[in-house]
Amino acid sequence: MNARVTQLAIHEALCGLFGPDLVKSEWSVRTDATDKVFDRSTYAPRLDIAVGPFNVTRERKHDDLASIDDYGRHPFIRWLRTEVERQNHGGFYLNPNPRCLLAIELEYSTSSKHILGGITNASLLGAIGVIVGPAAYIAKIQRIAQYAARLRQIEKAHDDMFANIACFPEDEFLRLLAPRR
After folding, report:
1. In the chain, what percentage of residues exceed pLDDT 90?
2. pLDDT at position 158, please?
3. Does residue 181 have a pLDDT over 60?
4. Domains of the chain: total
5. ∠109-113-83 over CA atoms, to 5°?
6. What is the C-alpha separation between 27 and 50, in angstroms, rounded?
7. Cβ(95)–Cβ(161) under 8 Å?
8. What is the pLDDT of residues 125-175, one digit of tens each?
9. 3-state secondary structure string, the chain?
10. Phi, psi at 40, each rounded to 5°
11. In what order do the strands lie in the sheet with 126-133?
């Protein structure tokens, strides 16, 4: 599959889990933002897929964060958090001020810098970040994520650095999202 086909399939599956109002493709962190964190002069990432609730207002920040926390009880999110802990050797960092519940980046580039940028955006913007890649690149994606985990283990990086992300091959992530019959 190519990135666009994968993005559409993941988007559709997540809409089945969370409803179409909470799932956005190509979501800019500026969308509906009133907190002005990302003005036009500041870099503002665009996530491949974002799942809300969204935290984009200063005046509703506490309500938005409470909504994100409530959705953290969703069975899929609870399972995903367990997977993040497994991939991070038992660690999990709770992002205290995410822009969204789930930040998903699709990595179809072999560039380590692009992969690291995707990991950074998913980690900083989501309560949980997910990196999805094709079978041809997933080993490299996982090695880069494990690099950060190793730096945390030997105390060369903060305990929270990328400790809220999990990496999946595209086919595995799509299977996880498939409805159970």
Report:
1. 71
2. 79
3. no
4. 1
5. 75
6. 6
7. no
8. 999 999 999 999 999 999 998 888 888 788 887 777 899 999 999 999 999
9. CCHHHHHHHHHHHHHHHHCHHHEEEEEECCCCCCCCCCCCCCCCCEEEEEEEEECCCCCCHHHHHHHHHHHCCCHHHHHHHHHHHHHCCCCCCCCCCCCEEEEEEECCCCCHHHHHHHHHHHHHHEEEEEEEECHHHHHHHHHHHHHHHHHHHCCCCCCCCCCCEEEEEHHHHHHHHCCCC
10. -60, -20
11. 23-28, 46-54, 100-106, 126-133, 165-169
Q: How far apart are CA 36 and CA 127, in angstroms?
A: 20
**Helical packing angle, 170-177 and 3-18, nearest 10°:** 20
Instruction: Calculate mean pLDDT across residues 52-68.
Output: 94
Q: What is the dihedral of CA 18, 24, 28, 34, to 10 degrees?
A: -50
Give the domain extent around 96.
3-177
Residue with tokens 């953290």: 72
pLDDT in tens, 6-55: 999 999 999 999 999 999 999 999 888 888 777 778 888 999 999 999 99
Is 7 within 8 Å of 106 (Cβ atoms)?
Answer: yes
